[in-house]
Design a protein that fits this description.
- The protein is α+β, with helices and mostly antiparallel strands.
- The chain has a single domain, classed as Single alpha-helices involved in coiled-coils or other helix-helix interfaces, CATH 1.20.5.
- Helices cover 41% and strands 17% of the residues.
- It is built from 3 helices and 3 strands; from the N terminus they run αααβββ.
- It has a 3-stranded antiparallel sheet with strand order 1-2-3, with no helix packed on it.
- Helix 1 runs antiparallel to helix 2.
- Bound molecules: zinc ion.
- Zinc ion binds next to loops.
């Protein structure tokens, strides 16, 4: 049987992107009450992105830990430092550092 190649549909990608944005908004809203719920939203958003082969924008990438996928809020559960022209995010949950270059 020939391999099926799924055509990238702009419409479904658009819907997926809207869903990802919504999930991150929900994660932000629910963080104060239940940060476990926020982590769950991040997990779902990542799964949608992977399924639809969408690259998460850098603004969203900074909002969760690359290692344990916890939703991070700078100053609350995440330490932000600037070192050698790089923004360094530290996740206390799994002790993982993430480096983002400064534009
Ligand atoms: Zn982490």
């Amino acid at each position: 049987m020939p391999k099926k190649h799924f055509k990238k549909s702009n419409k479904t990608q658009k819907i997926a992107k809207a869903r990802i944005n919504l999930l991150f908004r929900l994660a932000k809203e629910h963080f104060r009450e239940d940060n476990k719920l926020s982590d769950k939203y991040v997990k779902i958003a990542r799964r949608i992105a992977m399924k639809h082969k969408i690259r998460l924008p850098s603004s969203l990438k900074k909002r969760f830990c690359k290692n344990c996928h916890a939703y991070l809020v700078p100053g609350v559960n995440c330490r932000v430092r600037i070192h050698k022209h790089r923004i360094i995010y530290y996740c206390p949950g799994c002790k993982h550092f993430m480096r983002h270059p400064v534009k």
